Amino acid sequence: MSDNARSNIGKQHPAAYKALMALNACAEEATTAAGLDPLLVELIKIRTSQINGCAFCLRMHTRDALKKGENPDRIAVLPGWEETGYFTETERAALRLAEAVTRVADGHVSDAEYGAAAGTLSDEQISAVTWLTIVMNAWNRVAITSRYPVSAD
User: Fold this and answer.
1) pTM of the model
2) At what angle do helices 38-52 and 55-67 cross, to 10 degrees?
3) CA–CA distances in Å: residue 125 to residues 9, 96, 153
4) How many angstroms separate the CA atoms of 17 and 23, rounded?
C-alpha cells in the first residue's frame, strides 16, 4: 500500500455515507428478521472482505465475530470453508451465495449457485444474505478507496 493520502469519501460526501449507513441498518434488520445467526452474519462480512481484500473490514468484523463468541478455528478456515466440516448446511449455503454475489463479475450469480442457496435457505434468508453482501461489498469499496488506516494496535 502506498502512503499517498486519499480523500475520505465518507467525509467528503456525508449524505451518501449516511445513506449507506441506513442501508446497512436495513440489511442488518433483514438478517435478524430472517432468523440468521449473528455469527453467520459476521462470517459473511468476513468472507466478503476476504474476497475483496479489505483489511479494515476484515479486522473489524473478525474482532466483532470473536466478541460474539465465534470459534477462531472457523475464522481461520473460512477461505477454505468448502473443504471443512466446520460449517452447517445453512452456513454453507449462505457463504456460497455471498461469494457468488461478491464475484458477480465472474459470471453473475449462476442458476446453480442460486439453486444451491434456495435448496437450503428460505426466500427471506436469500434476500437477507444478498442485501448484507451488497452492503458489505459497498463498505469494502469505501474503505479500500479511501485507504482507511489499518495498523497494529
Assistant:
1) 0.93
2) 160
3) 31, 13, 36
4) 10
d(CA 106, CA 67): 34
| Residue 87 neighbours by CB under 8 Å, 6+ apart | 74, 81, 95
Based on the number of CB atoms within 10 Å of its own CB, is 27 exposed (0-12), middle (13-18) or buried (19 or more)? buried
Given a contact cutoff of 8 angstroms between Cβ atoms, the answer to whether 133 and 44 are in contact is yes
pLDDT higher than threshold 70 for residue 133: yes
For the chain, domains (ranges, CATH) are 11-146 (1.20.1290.10)
Q: What is the C-alpha to C-alpha distance for residues 128 and 123, in angstroms, rounded to an integer?
A: 9
